[in-house]
């Protein structure tokens, strides 16, 4: 097992489940900090701002600055700005997505947007979903912050953003452009911002379809931990394997 300068951790299912920290992850991250390693958090969850995400981690005993947290909301806002400039955006999502879009100069509208951006929204109602479907059918660009159909909580698996995006796709026949993992936008942004070479980075995650695939696509080493979505026994069914497979992060030699 080689040394890495930058560890990129998924959050849901890897560092915590809902509001419950995974003790082995907290311990490993603390040790990495003491050893002088750089630690980043790469999450498909679009709901929280980086500041509020840092506060949540602090409550779990993990020190993190907002600059070390890359969310799918930030990546989505940056992608739209780079590809299309400032836009009128019809948004399904929470505080994290709104702050990211407005911070990038996009204008939030309630209907008739140039783009429909879908993030997790735990207060969603029928009319907002219907409006999003109508806008996509009328030609608005359809963007999903991520494609996770479910994510783990302390209660079990609950609907993720991909479930909402899938409803709109099913209604309109239009597939969304997905920004979060397994796409590489967030990892590329971390590498660029912090002048990191790929051989210095490792991605740690529980979900093969999102976390591990993102690392494989970006060309960095990956560590799968059996604490969330994909069970270790199921990894044999995939053609490409993660660099490391662990039952828990306590098994990493530190």
Automatic annotation (TrEMBL):
The answer to whether the entry has keyword Magnesium is yes
Keyword annotations from UniProtKB, A to Z: Hydrolase, Magnesium, Metal-binding
A molecular-function term among this protein's GO annotations: hydrolase activity
Keyword Magnesium among record annotations? yes
Enzyme nomenclature, EC number = 3.1.3.41
- Essential cofactor(s): Mg(2+)
Concerning InterPro entries, the annotation shows: HAD-like_sf, HAD-SF_hydro_IIA, HAD-SF_hydro_IIA_hyp1, HAD_sf
What family is reported? Belongs to the HAD-like hydrolase superfamily. NagD family.
Which PANTHER family does the record match to this protein? 4-NITROPHENYLPHOSPHATASE-RELATED, HALOACID DEHALOGENASE-LIKE HYDROLASE DOMAIN-CONTAINING PROTEIN 2
Q: What is this protein called?
A: 4-nitrophenyl phosphatase
Species the sequence originates in: Bhargavaea ullalensis
The root-end lineage is: Bacteria, Bacillati, Bacillota, Bacilli, Bacillales
